[in-house]
Amino acid sequence: MDHLIAPSVLSADFANLQRDVEMINNSEADWFHVDIMDGMFVPNISFGFPVLKAIKKHAKKPLDVHLMIVDPDRYLNDFKDAGADSITVHFEACTHLHRTVQAIKQLNCKAAVAINPATPVSFLKDIIAELDMVLIMSVNPGFGGQKFIEHTYTKLAEIKQLAINANPNLLIEVDGGVDTSNISKLKEAGANVFVAGNSIFSKDSPSDTISSLKHI
């Protein structure tokens, strides 16, 4: 499949959020990536349901909602109601991961699991067949603009190998430090969904950057 580009609205201009949403609508991006942070699972707070609903009101593409929060099960229905098309929970935040994944699927959302840089890919072996997507964090979650962690390439290759045997249609997403200089290598390693924030919104023409990422 062609790879997908999911601009992270965490890096958008919040004073001009509708403008940036419209830019993504009119660009070659495939999804909106929306990071939800609670200040507990990660040392930062982003935004909650009102902002997500505001994005959904204007978005013409699917909302890929990444929950960096403790006890995400409490809010799955609320995120669906606020507009999530896919919901990603962290392996590290879920005590009963299989139950959480099934709950997401029952909401008719894509079910995804993220792992932090220090979490081994092998921890997903028993759940990978149930997933629509795995998100490999290539920075420590919580802040945009961090330096890419090189070990990510190895982890992508490992998850790709697991997927070949257990779930060949698995989407493999990578988030953190993605830009035009490394997307080709990330794709070769196994990724097919790319989250990019600072590398898009810091440019004079974010739409052109999205196009460059899409066609590399």
From TrEMBL:
Stated name of the protein: Ribulose-phosphate 3-epimerase
Cofactor: Fe(2+); Zn(2+); Co(2+); a divalent metal cation
Pathway: Carbohydrate degradation
Binding site residues for a divalent metal cation: H33, D35, H66, D175
Annotated binding of substrate, by residue: S8, H66, G142, F143, G144, G145, D175, G176, G177
Pfam families, per the entry: Ribul_P_3_epim
Keywords: Carbohydrate metabolism, Isomerase, Metal-binding
Native species: Mucilaginibacter litoreus
Catalytic reactions on record: D-ribulose 5-phosphate = D-xylulose 5-phosphate
CDD domains referenced in this protein's UniProt entry, alphabetically: RPE (cd00429)
Family, similarity comment: Belongs to the ribulose-phosphate 3-epimerase family.
Biological function: Catalyzes the reversible epimerization of D-ribulose 5-phosphate to D-xylulose 5-phosphate.
Keyword Isomerase applies: yes
Top-level taxonomic group: Bacteria
InterPro entries per record: Aldolase_TIM, Ribul_P_3_epim, Ribul_P_3_epim-like, RibuloseP-bd_barrel
HAMAP family linked: RPE
